[in-house]
Amino acid sequence: MNQDRRDRLRDAAIEVLAQAGGRGLTHRAVDAAAEVPLGTSKNYFPTRDALLRAVAERCLEQYRELAARLAGAGPGPGDRAGLAALLAGLLRDTAGAGRPRVVAYMELQAEATRRPWLAALLDPIAAADFAAFGQLLAAAGLPAGPEQARSLTLALHGAVLHLLTGAPATLAAAGLDDLDAFARGVLDRGCPGPKEEGP
Q: Distance of CA 174 to CAs 67, 83, 102, Å?
């Protein structure tokens, strides 16, 4: 099996799912988006369920590649400022280059409400975020217990939908019109530093 073509088809499936939603994800649409002969995607992913699985796996790969690129070498940023910059970078990607991947993933979550097998596939992907953000907190020297990891993860997940819709008044109300300040604020509230003593 040609891995380059397989990846091209999976990337095309992400684009189709993001643009046309679950009902628009067909083999024919993926073939057209990938600019390959009709029937190509069906050869690689014989059923629609296989196509959905391929999208989920590709979304996860792309997300992990982005996180690794932003974190750089090692376990992650070594201080609060570096971690805030990484978080802001993840959020910028959501509203920018990574938007198709994130929209496609949200479409997968909607599909998972009707497909238990897909919910089971997405469950460890979503659950891994909590552990990953806990590890980033620890690497930055911040409190990294389950409560802190949970607060950080849920705050970021909650921001995603607003970033995708991009409604200016909502972004301003949520503090998402300044992603650097938003990321710093999330860390300050979830992992407050030592209080400064007065004179």
A: 24, 20, 19
Would you say 142 and 135 are in contact if contact means Cβ atoms under 8 Å apart? no
Contact 27, 41 (CB under 8 A): yes
Torsion of CA 22, 45, 3, 101, to 10 degrees: 10
| Tokens at 2, concatenated | 């040609």
Closest to 87 in 3D by CA, of 27, 35, 133: 133
Q: Which amino acid is at 181?
A: A
> Which two tokens mark 142?
């911040």
For residue 66 the two structure tokens come to: 């982005």
From first to last of its 199 residues, the chain has per-residue pLDDT tens of 788 999 999 999 999 999 999 999 999 999 999 999 999 999 999 999 999 999 988 988 887 787 777 666 567 789 999 999 999 999 999 889 989 989 999 999 999 999 999 999 888 888 888 988 999 999 999 999 999 999 999 999 999 999 999 999 999 999 999 999 999 999 999 888 654 334 4
